[in-house]
Amino acid sequence: ETYQITMEARELTWLRITADDDQPYEILLQPGEKIERDASRVIIDVGNAGGIDITFQGRSLGNLGEQGQVVHLKLP
Fold first, then answer.
1. CA angle 55, 74, 16 (to 5 degrees)
2. How far is it, in rounded angstroms, from Cα 33 to Cα 9?
3. Residues 39, 12, 49, 61: is their CA dihedral positive or negative?
4. Cα 24 from Cα 20, distance rounded (Å)
5. Would you state the pLDDT for residue 3?
6. Exposed (0-12), middle (13-18) or buried (19+): which is 3, by Cβ within 10 Å?
7. Parallel, antiparallel, or unpaired: how do β-strands 52-56 and 3-9 relate?
């Protein structure tokens, strides 16, 4: 099954994304930038948990943490 993940930055935010069996890649999102991925499994390392909104299957994951906090997500 494939899931849709949307990541939209409110503040400058570093991400490392590993989707399925692809090589991980890093991206620095500027405020207002958004990326979307479709994957059956995704690991996201977030470098500014308070600066990003992540939506999984159309549902917000809510507040991930404080500004500058590093969090690690595994979805689903």
1. 80
2. 6
3. negative
4. 10
5. 97
6. middle
7. antiparallel
Inter-residue contact 53 to 24 (CB < 8 Å)? no
In the block, residue with structure tokens 């977030």: 46
* Cα separation, 28 vs 46, whole angstroms: 10
Tokens of 58: 């159309």
Position 37 scores a pLDDT of 95
Question: For 67, which DSSP code?
Answer: T
The token pair at 9 is 């930055």
Kindly report, residue by residue over 10-62, the tens digit of the pLDDT. 999 999 999 999 999 999 999 999 999 999 999 999 999 999 999 999 999 99
